[in-house]
Amino acid sequence: MKQFASLSFDNLINKLVTAISEFPDKRTGSNIKYQMRDIGLSAFSIFYMQSPSWLSHQRIMEKTKGRNNARSLFGIEEIPSDNHVRSILDEPSPGHLGQVFSGTFKDLYESGEIDSFRCINNNLLMSFDGVQYFHSSKVNCNNCSVKHHKNGKETYSHSAVVSAIMRPGHNRVIALQPEFITPQDGHDKQDCENAAAKRWINKYGEFYSKYVVTVLGDDLYSKEPICRLLLDKGFNFILVCKPDSHKELYEWVGELDALGEVQTVTIVRRKGKRKEIDKYRYVNDVPLRGGEVALRVNWCEITTESDNGKIIYHNAFVTHHRINEDNVAAIVSAGRARWKIENENNNVLKNNGYHLEHNFGHGARHLSSLLFTLNLLAFLFHTVLEISDERYRAIRNSLPTRKSFFNDLRALTIYMYFSNWDSLMNFMIKSLELEFHDTS
User: Is the same domain home to 278 and 232?
Assistant: First the structure.
């Protein structure tokens, strides 16, 4: 398989460089020792290599060998100090990096790589979720969310709404740009996940919806304002719908069930020596809330029981997809895939080397959120290479864990010099004695 040119490591870095070149820079004259490009790429490199000390090793390599991998791999001409990076990157807003996410997504689409993520009605599935990445009782800035406790103490935090493309049975997700939960100008109330999600939809909805997308989310999102906004922007949706927060809808479902108008489908599956029974119920065209002008939605429910009658799983969803006996299982499967944003996105970022909740630097304005976004981009770039680069995928698959891969990557680039990313990948292929035929 030939790698699509725009998905190569060098072109991914070039997208990032283009975005960094638009960062605001208040430095003047002799105060500009390091280029903004070097500052931004230096911060990105520690997330990409999953090592806060990686740059210090490259400084040592430069002194001893007169060359280093920060320059050859990432294009960093001069490596600034960590404090200088934090100082300069407090000014740029993370919104400057949005074009890198959307540009990478567009390249995945044009290469055809995104098609493997399509499922129900040939849609892509996009899930939203809130994630907290900083929490402290002391460190804070103007963009922190503040929680006032009954004992008079205050705690400070940073959170974001993250989004990603996923599908049932796929072990990767495509990270998209985040929207930060932060105090908004002209608003007295604390910002929240719901409001941040609406901002994301308004900012990016028209770009992504043209690729035919169904949005997934938990019960927080299955409220009429968000559902109408999703439809207005061209999205479909499959959202968790709980009885406690949708009383009028469930009253309709109960009345229709009594009339025999709620349809049922039962599917028996074998799981080893045992059987599991999936019982689906569904009905179309019910109101999402009370009132004459309520949005009409389609509702479905799944209850999974073991062969001894014990309930293993239960959930319900609302959607704009028309439901029938042939697609109800697929719609539920798509709705349940929203958990992948927790498992394959948030948990990987927190627990598998990206150290999402580590305080790399807080700053007074945007530093914390900008570093979070660069970390997310590092995760996206690794995912893209695993999808599109045969060498990268062969190396990852030959090693027992993700941790092993990054341990090897760090060790090699700390002690050895590589002239470019291709030479590093080819060295690892040869050293691991992998069978690989370059078709590029």
Answer: yes
Residue entry with tokens 């796929």: 170
Looking at the structure, tell me whether residues 342 and 366 fall in a common domain.
no
In tens digits, the chain (440 residues) has pLDDT values of 445 778 999 999 999 999 999 999 988 777 688 999 999 999 999 999 999 899 999 999 999 999 999 999 999 999 999 999 999 999 999 999 999 999 999 999 999 999 999 999 999 999 999 998 888 888 888 888 888 888 888 898 889 999 999 999 888 999 999 999 987 765 567 889 999 999 999 999 999 999 999 999 999 999 999 999 999 999 999 999 999 999 999 999 999 999 999 999 999 998 888 899 999 999 999 999 998 899 999 999 999 999 888 999 999 999 999 999 999 999 999 999 998 877 776 677 766 666 666 677 888 889 999 999 999 999 999 999 999 999 999 999 999 988 899 999 999 999 999 999 999 999 999 999 887 655 44
Strand bridging mode 174-175 / 213-217: unpaired
The domain total for the chain is 2
Give the number of other Cβ atoms within 10 Å of residue 30's Cβ: 6
∠ CA 274-276-279, rounded to 5°: 165
Give 146-170 as a 3 state SS string: EEECCCCCEEEEEEEEEEEEECCCC
Q: 243 is in which domain, residue-wise?
A: 112-346
Exposed, middle or buried, 293 (CB in 10 Å: 0-12/13-18/19+)? exposed
Are residue 342 and residue 405 in the same domain, yes or no?
no
What b-and-e string marks burial along 319-351, b requiring 16 or more CB atoms within 10 Å of the CB?
bbbebeeebbeebbbbbbbbebbeebbbebbbe
Residue 197 lies in a domain: yes
- In this structure, are 279 and 163 located in the same domain? yes
**Cα 50–112–127 angle (5° rounding)?**
60
- Claim to verify: residue 87 and residue 166 sit in the same structural domain: no
**Residue 245 and residue 147 in one domain:** yes
CATH of the domain at 214: 3.90.350.10
Q: What is the pTM of this model?
A: 0.92
222 in the same domain as 155: yes
- Give me 18's structure tokens: 């283009």
